[in-house]
Design a protein that fits this description.
This protein is an alpha/beta fold. The strands form two sheets. A seven-stranded mixed beta sheet has the order 5-4-3-6-7-9-8, sandwiched between helices. The chain has a two-stranded antiparallel ribbon with strand order 1-2. It binds S-adenosylmethionine.
């Protein structure tokens, strides 16, 4: 028995306990906009913050106590005031865009809602279907919208060889597993000579996309309900994208074959998947590996298994993704650097 190791582990476990608790309080701070109200301002008492945010002081005070003891905000015990340090602001406020990790904490709360289902699934081996995650589309859209707004037009499209020129001239573009469709909405607005289709099997997601297209009077984008494993649009698209939409498929190989078929000869496919290696040993030092394997167990792997599928898992990784792309018939597979997004790998490939 190594007593030092036992003591270190106790510290580590207490850190995890506090971190787990704080993740939900950070999610609440994001949803109530408390961080946004604190940002840029000076020290505030709980009453002042509650007044600014139009929230109940007792709840705000208890939340602030968690934030202060967790090292998220500074506390002045004499004045009983709280300050969000400038150095913390980008990681917890909406102004931080894709840097806002407090927004991501919502995933932890979401996973908590299906814990009973997942515990049951450990016995049965069955999956947990998308329908058990009613808040998923809203949360996913919030997460990816920040990323698309920061990088899609200025970094991602320019990183795909020839894409900007093709879209400017007029191209046909599909996003498979589009969710609420923010990517195709941004593109449809930026490239009026091109036409865009968002495919998904989530009516909730597609409805958000359709409403946004109508509100923005975009006539060059449509949203189509389809199971990607049954997508049948041969040789129709110059460019196809998937953003985090392959690894949780029930039948990813079939979906990739359908995407290959839907792509025109010489057309381009951008496949964006969570950044990971395919071997656990190579992910051990990744700072978000534990988060990835958790979200995999409690969502991505499980929704795939629920569809009778492979359950690839969130961290199926670069090597396996490349194998699947090759097997589907894609060539010239390269990864491109998309700096504002460190959580995903961007595979660009071509239909020969
Ligand atoms: C992780 S989300 C990503 C959504 C979107 N691309 C984004 O970045 O916000 C995966 C999406 O794939 C969709 N999806 C999963 N399996 C599907 C299938 N077999 N056919 C169509 N859509 C599917 C889900 O409904 C969900 O919207």
């Amino acid at each position: 028995m190594d007593k030092v190791r036992a003591k270190d582990f106790l510290q580590s476990m207490l850190g995890i306990l506090n971190g787990g608790a704080l993740s939900m309080m950070l999610s609440i701070g994001h949803r109530t906009e408390l961080f946004d109200h604190m940002a840029g301002g000076g020290p505030l008492t709980s009453q002042q913050l509650a007044d600014i945010a139009s929230l109940d002081e007792r709840y705000v005070r208890e939340w602030l106590a968690a934030m202060a003891s967790g090292g998220i905000v500074d506390y002045n015990a004499d004045a009983e005031t709280f300050t969000l340090p400038e150095e913390h602001q980008a990681l917890v406020t909406r102004a931080g865009g894709p840097m806002n990790i407090a927004a991501r904490m919502q995933y932890i709360s979401l996973l908590g809602t299906v814990e009973d289902d997942i515990v049951e699934a450990f016995s049965t081996g069955a999956g947990v279907p998308y329908s058990r995650y009613p808040d998923f589309q809203r949360l996913m859209a919030e997460d990816s919208t920040a990323r698309f707004d920061a990088a899609l037009l200025d970094v991602i499209i320019p990183a795909i060889p020839g894409a900007h020129d093709a879209l400017t001239a007029g191209a046909r573009f599909a996003d498979v597993g589009c969710g609420s469709g923010h990517a195709v909405l941004l593109l449809a607005d930026a490239y009026p000579n091109s036409s865009f289709v968002g495919f998904d099997f989530s009516d909730d997601g597609l409805a958000v996309g359709r409403d946004a297209a109508a509100a923005a009077r975009l006539t060059n984008v449509e949203f189509v309900a389809v199971d990607a494993a049954e997508l049948n649009r041969p040789d129709e698209f110059d460019i196809v994208t998937t953003f985090d939409a392959i690894h949780d498929q029930a039948f990813p190989a079939t979906v990739l074959e359908n995407i290959h078929e839907a792509t025109k000869a010489n057309g381009t496919y951008l496949c964006v998947e969570p950044r990971a290696a395919s071997q656990l040993a190579e992910n051990m030092l990744d700072p978000v590996a534990a988060f990835q394997y958790t979200i995999s167990t409690m969502h991505c792997m499980s929704v795939s298994l629920a569809g009778g599928g492979e359950g690839l898992g969130t961290a199926w990784g670069t090597e396996r993704t490349t194998e699947f792309l090759t097997a589907a018939g894609f060539v010239d597979i390269q990864t491109v650097d998309v700096r504002p997004d460190r959580t995903n790998t961007y595979f660009v490939c071509r239909k020969s």
